[in-house]
Amino acid sequence: MCRAVDVSRSGYYAFKNRPESQNSINNEKLLIEIRRVFWDNKRNYGSPRIWDQLRNKQDIRCSLNRVARLMRCNDIVAIQKRKFRVTTNSKHNYSVWPNLLNRNFIVKQPNSVWVSDITYIWTLEGWLYLAMILDLFSRGIVGMAMDKTIADTLITQAMKQAILRRSPPKKLICHSDRGVQYAGNNFKALLASNEFIGSMSKKGDCWDNAVAESFFHTLKVELIHKIKFRTREEAKRKIFEYVEMYYNTKRAHSTLGYLSPFEYEKQKIVSQQLVH
């Protein structure tokens, strides 16, 4: 073997008997922490999020390149995303609101702009439909409803939950696509009774509601595609746990400086109070 790789026998045995280097020991310790963060976050984090959590939450000094290299060399790979599919049904005769949001997804105050969307999840009992309300300020989910039908009551239930939890002010903008559930009379009446302002994406343009679409994409990659749900109740329970116990409170968002939605909102509110 030594002749094949052009190494002397004495050099080989010296290498075998040499103690492990300090750099190698440090890499092994860092790899343990990388794996812990990776599995604690259900294999969803790539090297940037893991590096940020090690640096800012555990005070471990290391470079992003080092974390990425150790992950690559040890086959630690985050779950890959799937291609997005459009599901909106906008073929109806209801009037629609103009696009007030106009892809301006940066909001300075909580409960000033909410976005909403609906998706579906397959279970062995059949489809489960999920409607959610997301606060653009923090990217947090403030309202959610799930049912086996996609009737217009689904989105009104999610909105009522959000209103009850957040007590938003008048003139709040609620943006959605042009789906029949949002354009229908029940949802419009709910917004009008709270003096909210409706806004809708242009026809067939999913990018006008990109943040809502992005949340569903994340939900499916990090939860839905990993599990074969036996019942709708099982799916409801898992989705609720993911949103309320992980996504809102723990999951790091790159657009929020790698804070979770609720951490970001809490920090911003405290800093604004100190300024005033």
Please write out the topology.
Blueprint: H1 9-17, H2 22-40, H3 47-56, H4 64-73, E1 113-123, E2 126-135, E3 140-147, H5 153-166, E4 173-176, H6 180-183, H7 185-193, E5 197-200, H8 210-222, H9 232-247, H10 261-275
Parallel strand pairs: 1-4, 4-5
Antiparallel strand pairs: 1-2, 2-3
Helix pairs in contact: 2-3, 3-4
What's a concise summary of this model?
This protein is an alpha/beta fold and 276 residues long. The chain has 10 helices and 5 strands, in the order ααααβββαβααβααα.
Explain what the structure shows.
α2 crosses α3 (47-56) and α3 (47-56) packs across α4. The protein folds into two domains: 9-73, no CATH class; 113-275, Ribonuclease H-like superfamily/Ribonuclease H (Nucleotidyltransferase, domain 5). Helix content is 43%, strand content 13%. It has a five-stranded mixed beta sheet with strand order 3-2-1-4-5, sandwiched between helices. The model has no long low-confidence stretch (mean pLDDT 86). The protein is built from ten helices and five strands; from the N terminus they run ααααβββαβααβααα. β2 (126-135) and β3 (140-147) form a beta hairpin. With 276 residues, it is an alpha/beta fold.
Give short descriptive properties of this protein.
5 strands; Nucleotidyltransferase, domain 5; 2 domains; alpha/beta; 43% helix; 276 residues; five-stranded mixed sheet
Shape: elongated
CATH homologous superfamily assignment of the largest domain = Ribonuclease H-like superfamily/Ribonuclease H
Domains, number: 2
Strand order in the sheet with the most strands? 3-2-1-4-5
Spell the H/E element sequence: HHHHEEEHEHHEHHH
Sheet of most strands: 5 strands, mixed
How many extended strands?
A: 5
* Overall pLDDT score: 86
Name the poorly predicted regions: none
Classify the fold: give the CATH topology of the largest domain: Nucleotidyltransferase, domain 5
Helix count equals 10
Could you tell me the radius of gyration in angstroms?
24 Å
CATH architecture of the largest domain: 2-Layer Sandwich
- Distance between the first and last residues' Cα: 73 Å
Q: Estimate the strand proportion.
A: 5-15%
**Helix vs. strand class:** alpha/beta
- CATH level-1 class of the largest domain: Alpha Beta
Helix content: 40-55%
